[in-house]
Amino acid sequence: MMEKQIAEKLPEGQLLTKSGSKLPIKAYKRRWWIMFVFMYYAGINALQWIEYSSITAIVVKYYNVSTLAVDWTSTVFMVVYPILVIPASYLIDKKGVRLAVLVGCTGTFIGTAIKVLSIRGDMFWLVLVGNTIVSASCLVIVCLPPKLASLWFQANEVSTACSLGVFGSQMGSAIGFVLPPFLVHDHDNLEDIGSNLKVLCWVLAIAMIPPTVAVFLYFPDEPPLPPSNVQAVLRENKVQFDTKVFFLSIKDLFLNTGFVIHLCGYGINIAVFSAIGTLLSQFILSFFEGANQEAGFMGFILIIAGMIAMLAFGILLDKTHKYKEIALFNYFFAGVSILCLMFALKYRLKIMTYVACILVGIFTNAYMMVGFEFGMELTFPAEESTTSGIMLASSQILGAIFTISLGYINLWLGPFWALSTQVVMMFIGTIATAFVPNDLRRQEAFRRNSPEYSVRKASYHGSRPMFIE
């Protein structure tokens, strides 16, 4: 009854309100350009997460620091995130997507450029400064894929578009495993290593110029017309941003029991992936001495396999809407894949190590997008950027703890037992995911095609319920 009273779906793709006015809907071709630009600079940002960890031994030699110090070039991404995630979400919700994109892209360019000046044996601190700025910029990058997907793409494209947004960061991480070992080689002469590092830093700084210029020239807050009925009604009922209500909406997220359970499971999964990714080169070199480039390539195929799986799972989610089932399947086999990696390394089976890396990528890496989308379903009509920000905050807090702990366990007990702790954590996360209620609120809104749900979302950050008149 409410559905008929509020609005009805028109065959030509418009929404008719009670007053008879039409809300036009259009999916612009430029949405693919918007997504490409985002993927490009998000990839360069993500590359720097693993930039130095993929050549740990060489960095240790050049800067005369410990392996744990090099681990901090990656760990800083996880430490900064929970500190600044609320301000980042606030910026996106209050000021819009364009400003968030400008901050993320410009910050990445500045942090990348600073590291060009770090090529000297006593300048490792400047490496950390540059990576800290890049990691702070990452805050307004990783929250954006679900937001961009909902703002620019049709209802049946949202999960696929979100996977593309995450795809950019994953591609950057993959390149981060192979580009540094390809450009930076171990030399007896430290000046030769410094020359290689300078080339690496200049390549990344120059690569950041095109997306930074593109973002300044064109990257709007939203398309002129909405791409879906939900977005149409959101615009029709747009309310002024309220800081108090913003923080109350965060409180509501933590009162959502299903989301809190999923938050714990998501945090564990991504933390395990971050920890293993950071130390993967050290693990592999412990069993295959001198295989620096092969270690980089194993990390590369791990990420590439995850990217392909991410796109496949995104399409599968759009087709089936089996969010919990796919998340649970993904989680369980992620634990199994790490178990395979443990034994492949222990018995020095190089081909099986490659296969295990592929499996880890497929099931662990791809979970980032699957978990994102499941979280959006559980928290509708909450703002996507806020939900994703909270989810990533939990993963980064745990990621920092897991990475630091894994580094010490690796030093004390070796890679096999270090990896075994991550297998245990993955199976704990699988059990947690099994207890998450299968509450698909967003899909119910799409299924019923009811503006009632859209209006609830539109008024979520307002002070009172609103309806289309």
From TrEMBL:
Residues 34-441 form the Major facilitator superfamily (MFS) profile domain. SUPFAM superfamilies: MFS general substrate transporter (SSF103473). One of its GO terms (cellular component) is membrane. GO terms for biological process: heme export. The lineage of its organism: Eukaryota, Metazoa, Ecdysozoa, Arthropoda, Hexapoda. PANTHER family: GH15861P, MAJOR FACILITATOR SUPERFAMILY PROTEIN-RELATED. The keyword Membrane applies. It is found in: Membrane. The chain crosses the membrane at residues 32-52, 72-92, 99-117, 123-146, 158-179, 199-219, 253-276, 296-316, 328-345, 351-370, 390-409, 415-437. InterPro entries: FLVCR1-2_SLC49-like (IPR049680), MFS (IPR011701), MFS_dom (IPR020846), MFS_trans_sf (IPR036259). Keywords: Membrane, Transmembrane, Transmembrane helix. Its main location: membrane. GO terms for molecular function: heme binding; heme transmembrane transporter activity. This is Major facilitator superfamily (MFS) profile domain-containing protein. It is a multi-pass membrane protein.
